[in-house]
Automatic annotation (TrEMBL), chain A:
<protein>
    <submittedName>
        <fullName>Iron ABC transporter permease</fullName>
    </submittedName>
</protein>
<feature type="transmembrane region" description="Helical">
    <location>
        <begin position="61"/>
        <end position="81"/>
    </location>
</feature>
<keyword id="KW-1133">Transmembrane helix</keyword>
<dbReference type="GO" id="GO:0005886">
    <property type="term" value="C:plasma membrane"/>
</dbReference>
<dbReference type="InterPro" id="IPR000522">
    <property type="entry name" value="ABC_transptr_permease_BtuC"/>
</dbReference>
<keyword id="KW-0813">Transport</keyword>
<keyword id="KW-1003">Cell membrane</keyword>
<dbReference type="Pfam" id="PF01032">
    <property type="entry name" value="FecCD"/>
</dbReference>
<dbReference type="InterPro" id="IPR037294">
    <property type="entry name" value="ABC_BtuC-like"/>
</dbReference>
TrEMBL record, chain B:
<dbReference type="InterPro" id="IPR037294">
    <property type="entry name" value="ABC_BtuC-like"/>
</dbReference>
<comment type="similarity">
    <text>Belongs to the binding-protein-dependent transport system permease family. FecCD subfamily.</text>
</comment>
<feature type="transmembrane region" description="Helical">
    <location>
        <begin position="282"/>
        <end position="303"/>
    </location>
</feature>
<keyword id="KW-1003">Cell membrane</keyword>
<dbReference type="InterPro" id="IPR000522">
    <property type="entry name" value="ABC_transptr_permease_BtuC"/>
</dbReference>
<dbReference type="Pfam" id="PF01032">
    <property type="entry name" value="FecCD"/>
</dbReference>
<feature type="transmembrane region" description="Helical">
    <location>
        <begin position="155"/>
        <end position="176"/>
    </location>
</feature>
<feature type="transmembrane region" description="Helical">
    <location>
        <begin position="310"/>
        <end position="331"/>
    </location>
</feature>
<keyword id="KW-1133">Transmembrane helix</keyword>
């Protein structure tokens, strides 16, 4: 049985990877004006300074890279958070972790001037960690460990609080509405420099997640069985939390607080790849990248000749999905 | 003191605070006005023409907008919590206010995008679409649990999802509606009473006042619905009909308040619940909720718009104050449901 599933999963991973490559091509191709194939070829192979080359190389390529990196990070972060909480409606965006990271960046930027990407990322990590500890801590007060609903409701409160503080701080600095919307819904138009500098963080987060994958497999048997198999629950919880915080903080620094992506992607990959986290983690990274890249393309199509911030598109897709999952009488066990 | 009814006592205290809040809200602004001048002007005896102009033309519309929104949200919250028998079920948490906001902005987007719309659509289309948005969200959210358990928190979860969806739709419609005016965008995303004039207050205060009176009159129905559905049926109540009437009232009030001031977060949630605690009654009381909502919005607006160099939208302050209240409610509910 298991031996038969491995080729199937390899084939599935190959399909997702192909889809990612196709979406990169589409992302370079589609914009406020759609390029022709020859223009695309020209820009990739023999670029000079013609207008279509600049549009593709200076605008579309950076946002594509940003979308792929942030999407991969959020997809894996969502898979980890759902796995550790065994909660099918958990998501770093819905639980306020992304908004916590955003508050930290915004507040420090407004009061102490612009920060370089690395300090932004460290602030984001601190904010994400604080928000995560707050949400998990408060939700645990109910005594027997947080129920899925309690966790999400506390997360909603933390999200609302952080979003309001972000609005207040941005408005007090008299920044433009565009800045406000970036820190409220997220977008991939300005994160390229951060992506180029911060990729070690993504690597660190994905590495921690890979280490955590095997532990999560054992932990699904229950913490006592895991202990008898030599897996320390506390250590693997801490590893998981660290991976999630690093990935969320990285994604927020690049693309703002995008919600719902970390909710949808784990459901998709569990459906296709089963329950083995050693497969789920890489699959979630690829699918998250694909999801955010496609959402960004959709955002350019939905509001032509302008564009919709990618966070809005993800919410338009993800919120109905959330309603569907929350509405089911018995949510699938994770 | 021993015989004093706690509901009456707290209502009187709240009314006193509300009057004070109204006075302060009118008094504080670019130029401060003395409180006794404010009250003498409000009762029709302005000390001088300048004060009269300032209060009647500039301060009063803003104060009335805050009162309207506060009463509308407060009572809508009480009614929804009453029907759902769940303190977390309020129009703001369930996405009704965001739905109304999305509807209103959709009408604005339609005006900008569709040239064949009849003239004047901008005037009547906005409230009509707002009502449609609010009603649609209420129907969807309550349809999910109507046949099973109305108290279930699945209602609240679906509401949170609808709320996120409607906020995203609002964002989209704002780009389509060519809203370049930051003030307008903020109104529909966070809620504010900045920059309102008498024209914006033509209908909504009247609608909210009428609905509030109906809600007071329907107290027997609300008391029966506060019991569990079987008991209510056993008492001969038309449970489904009464629920529909009260939810309809709540939705109209929440939508009317949203049309005036935007989707102010947590006013309905906090006012409805706090009113029940203060009055020590089983049903969330209408008068207390109205007064509390009014005080909440007036205070939030003072805090947001008058404390800093920039006039922040009142929705920012209601969210900062209301979010901890939501946490408190969630934790409290999780604890009691565990004990049961």
């Amino acid at each position: 049985m298991n031996a038969q599933r491995i080729p199937r999963r390899v084939a599935l991973l190959a399909i997702v990877l192909t889809a990612v490559l196709l979406s990169i091509a589409a992302s370079l191709w589609i914009g406020s004006t759609t390029s022709t194939i020859s223009e695309l070829w020209h820009a990739v192979v023999t670029p000079n300074d013609q207008v279509s080359d600049i549009a593709i190389r200076e605008i579309r390529w950076p946002r594509t890279v940003t979308a792929l990196a942030a999407g991969a990070a959020l997809g894996v972060a969502g898979t980890l958070i759902q796995g550790h909480t065994r909660n099918p409606i958990a998501d770093p965006g819905l639980l306020g972790i992304n908004q916590g990271a955003a508050v930290m960046i915004v507040a420090v930027t407004v009061f102490f001037g612009p920060q370089n990407p690395w300090s932004q990322a460290l602030l984001a990590l601190a904010g994400a960690l604080l928000a995560a500890l707050a949400v998990f801590g408060i939700a645990r007060i109910d005594g027997r460990g947080a129920s899925p609903t309690t966790l999400v409701l506390v997360g909603a409160a933390v999200t609302a609080l952080c979003a309001a503080v972000v609005s207040a701080v941005v408005l007090l600095s008299e920044a433009a509405l565009e800045t406000l919307r970036f820190w409220q819904v997220g977008s991939v138009v300005q994160g390229y420099q951060s992506a180029l500098m911060l990729w070690p963080l993504l690597a660190l987060g994905l590495g921690l997640a890979s280490i955590n994958a095997g532990q999560l497999n054992v932990l699904t048997l229950g913490e006592d069985s895991a202990a008898s198999l030599g897996v320390s629950a506390i250590k693997s919880r801490i590893t998981g939390l660290a991976a999630m915080v690093v990935l969320s903080g990285f994604a927020v620094t690049l693309a703002g607080p995008i919600a719902f992506l970390g909710l949808v992607v784990p459901h998709l990959v569990r459906y296709f790849f089963g329950a083995d986290y050693r497969w789920l983690i890489p699959a979630a990274a690829l699918s998250g990248a694909l999801f955010l890249c496609l959402s960004d393309i959709l955002g350019r199509l939905l509001a032509r000749p302008g564009e919709l911030p990618v966070g809005v598109v993800v919410a338009l897709i993800g919120a109905p999905f959330f309603i569907h999952v929350a509405h089911r009488r018995r949510a699938v066990s994770v | 003191m021993k015989n004093l009814n706690p509901a009456l006592f707290s209502a009187l205290a709240l009314a006193f605070i509300a009057v004070l809040a109204i006075g302060v809200h009118v008094a504080v602004g670019g130029t401060a006005i003395a409180l006794n001048d404010v009250f003498s002007t409000l009762f029709g005896f302005p000390p001088d023409g300048r004060t009269a102009l300032m209060i009647y033309e500039f301060r009063l519309p803003r104060t009335l907008a805050a009162i309207t929104a506060g009463v509308g949200f407060g009572v809508a919250g009480a009614l929804t919590q009453n029907v759902a028998r769940n303190p977390l079920a309020s129009p703001d948490i369930l996405g009704v206010t965001n739905g109304a906001s999305a509807g209103a902005v959709a009408a604005m987007a339609a005006v900008a995008q569709l040239s064949w719309l009849p003239a004047g659509f901008g005037q009547w289309g906005m409230p009509v679409f707002a009502v449609a948005g609010g009603v649609l969200v209420t129907v969807i959210v309550f349809a999910v649990v109507w046949r099973s358990n109305l108290e279930s928190n699945r209602l609240v979860l679906v509401g949170i999802g609808m709320s996120g969806l409607c906020a995203a739709l609002t964002s989209w419609m704002l780009t389509l509606g060519e809203v370049v005016n930051a003030q307008q965008a903020l109104t529909w995303m966070a809620g504010t009473v900045n920059g309102l004039s008498w024209q914006d207050l033509a209908i909504a205060p009247l609608v909210i006042a009428i609905c509030a009176v109906i809600a007071v009159v329907l107290r027997p129905q609300r008391e029966v619905l506060a019991m569990d559905a079987d008991t209510a049926r056993g008492l001969g109540s038309e449970v489904a009909r009464d629920r529909l009437v009260l939810l309809g009232l709540a939705t109209i009030m929440a939508v009317a308040a949203t049309v005036v001031a935007g989707p102010l977060a947590f006013v309905a949630l906090a006012s409805g619940h706090a009113a029940r605690i203060l009055s020590r009654s089983i049903v969330p009381p209408v008068v207390h909720s109205a007064l509390l909502g009014m005080i909440f919005v007036l205070a939030a607006d003072l805090l947001a718009a008058r404390t800093f160099s920039v006039a922040l939208p009142a929705g920012v302050a209601t969210a900062v104050i209301g979010a901890p209240y939501l946490m408190f409610l969630v934790v409290q509910q999780a604890r009691t449901r565990n004990i049961r």
